[in-house]
Amino acid sequence: MDENLTETFVSAERLYEGKMINLRRDMVLLPNGNQASREVVEHPGAVAVVPVLPDGRLLMVRQFRHPVGRILLEIPAGKLASGENPDECALRELEEETGHLAGKLVRVASIFTAPGFTDEVIHIYLAGDLKKTTVNPDEDEFLAVVAHEPQEIARMILSGDICDAKTIAGFYLLQETR
Amino acid sequence: MDENLTETFVSAERLYEGKMINLRRDMVLLPNGNQASREVVEHPGAVAVVPVLPDGRLLMVRQFRHPVGRILLEIPAGKLASGENPDECALRELEEETGHLAGKLVRVASIFTAPGFTDEVIHIYLAGDLKKTTVNPDEDEFLAVVAHEPQEIARMILSGDICDAKTIAGFYLLQETR
Fold this sequence. Notes:
By secondary structure, chain A is an alpha+beta fold. Chain A folds into two domains: 8-42; 46-176, Nucleoside Triphosphate Pyrophosphohydrolase (Alpha-Beta Complex). Chain A has helices spanning 86-98, 150-159, 165-176, and strands at residues 8-17, 22-29, 35-42, 46-51, 58-65, 70-74, 77-79, 100-112, 121-132, 143-148. In chain A, strand 1 (8-17) and strand 2 form a beta hairpin. The first copy, chain A, starts with 7 loop residues before the first strand and ends with a helix.
């Protein structure tokens, strides 16, 4: 049934090579034989971690997000380094951003954030058996680490105080998988 | 507590004006006084709709997504037209993509898909009292409309067969709010 949905690559024009993202514009052949242009933001992929403390609270980070001009409350996350294994990236980002080592780490999903214009995939992990170590964020990264009860997070999602897609997905996936 | 997180805008360089997105690179002043560059993909914003049929199944669409090179199973969604009210956009996209009018429409969340590099916000709606009309997709849009039981969708999220962030958020928000 799907042959009549697929678009076929025709050509690519590279428009920008950046720090976090690249941009290209592709021409594709549509199922009806016409051509159309498709903008693609290339992203290296990322991980996000739902860290569960022994008392049941979740570690989260408050971080200013320049593209939306606001501080957001999110689960810890970060981009994959070149060639980096997602599991190792998850442990690294969790430690850098929250100062905790995870004794237990399970990948529960890999989600596309905005498949209409970017290839970004975020691998979502649940982390447990947390042990405190040292916070060590990137030099251009400023974070506040906080801990919240699951009921409080559920309330903040419905009130709109939590409005980050990966955080909402990660929180509900935690509820579903335990 | 948040003053030490905020980044301040310094200057912008416009890099690309496109069909669906624009790209700019901003310089910002970090909390520590240093400057850093931030890439921003400008997006007009979008809506996504969780349409609930009288029998409890949800309407979804299968659509080839060129940036990820795959057909994805998603809830109906679409970009805001210039100056368009999100409620009207939700009704329009639902009708265009699935051929259904909604007698009931409730906004349950507005989420940032990837706030690290884009301002895209998706307003998520639940829709009910559906009435069949005519499918009328955009000329470069090829969709297959399907209906799935909630239990089946829950299973497909955990198995990875559903991997679109807005769809996962929308489905769980439906479970939470009814």
